[in-house]
Amino acid sequence: MAADHTHSAPSAPPRVRRILIVTVVPLFVATVLAAVLLWPRGGSPQTDGGADVPRYPGTVTRVVSEPCPPAPSAPEGTPRVGDGRCGTVDVLVDDGPTAGQQVRTPVPDGPGAPRVEVGDEVILVELADPTDPTTSNWNIAEHQRGTPMVWLAVIFAAAIVAFGRWRGLAALAGLAASFAILLTFVLPGISAGRSPLLVAVVGAALIMFVVLYLTHGVTAQTSVAVLGTLGSLVLTGVLATIATAATHLTGFGSEDATTLSMFQGDVDLHGLLLAGIIIGSLGVLDDVTVTQAATVTELANANPGLTRLQLYRAATRVGRAHIASTVNTIVLAYAGASLPLLLLLTADARPIGQILTSEFLAQEIVRSAVATLGLIAAVPLTTGLAAVVTAAGRSAATASTDAPASRPQPDRREALAALISPRTAGSDEPDQTRATPPSEATDRWPESNRSTDTAW
């Protein structure tokens, strides 16, 4: 039987469970109702994306390279397009009306054109000749990537399940649920003309409820993480709205957004920018809030003598270390996704101040800064909620356990005198420090204001 790598959190007392239920359940119901109201209806809107070109799988059987004809004279300084690859490629069509036939295509050439060899599996497109509609030309569009991606997905899932066991299996189910919500609600809702920010907030909240409870179970600790994540998401949305309005961002900060505006002009690109910030922040927020809630629970289990304030301070120190590394992760993730843009900007001859404040780069800076601010706010918010819930549950459990068997408590001053009085060899009086062993004295009288710096 698989064993979990974390200790199971003790069951919260009924009073704490009732408070969490009264808080979380209305939020979940409100999220579901908002999703029902915003759910896209009537199918996907038609976009002006041109005719659908038939695509057929095929296998390369022969490649013939030929010298390229001399290029026509061009003005000096004109950049060359492509690398001068010429010749023909024979491809066996694997599916479609011409399955089993050999077709001849030109060698793919131009920026981003695939390099093909014998045995490669490719995707063919059939284009009608504009001068003679009865004839058609075949071209290689790209490689087939289905089989390698399936193997990569299998290895990915196997590694998660092998390491996480049942928790890993639940994580895969949560990942599938996230993609299902994105593909069936968020993207169609934005395409249908709904407010991208509202759809993103509702979709992110729905993903959060499903993924956190499915992955970590329905516990008080998970409920604290849910509340912390939801509060941080709302704050991130508010900060993103203020930041994009203050910097006058329009949403046309990428070539993809410009292309989308051509195909579907009714999409609010400014709202789409806000929605991207919300969705992009959700995964990191989940990580931080779950970690902080688990940290508070583990600290309370390891040292039941910690007060609410001590729990908060100790867990916040863990959160600071987590934030320090996660902030770098966010910035590097955005930088890695925008490397072509950054390279293009480095070749720009404008002053660095104009480059940093341009629409293209300012959008990425605002995205990173807002996501980081929401992440920082998640640490004290979730840690405070977890400390309150954990301390309340421990107090209730202690009260119910110690109430029937009350015992007389020693006087504090006498205990202090016994602990700090020096031992005198040959004294006629009995050694008071040996009457009460230190461990027993500590059990009877815990130091409530003891610092946790040494222990933790």
UniProtKB/TrEMBL annotation:
Coiled coil: none annotated. Keywords: Membrane, Transmembrane, Transmembrane helix. Residues 65-84, 396-456 are annotated as: Disordered. The chain crosses the membrane at residues 19-39, 146-163, 170-190, 196-214, 226-249, 269-285, 323-345, 365-389. It holds the Pfam family YibE_F. It comes from the Bacteria. Residues 396-408 have a biased composition (Low complexity). The keyword Transmembrane applies. PANTHER family: MEMBRANE PROTEIN (PTHR41771:SF1), MEMBRANE PROTEIN-RELATED (PTHR41771). This is YibE/F family protein.
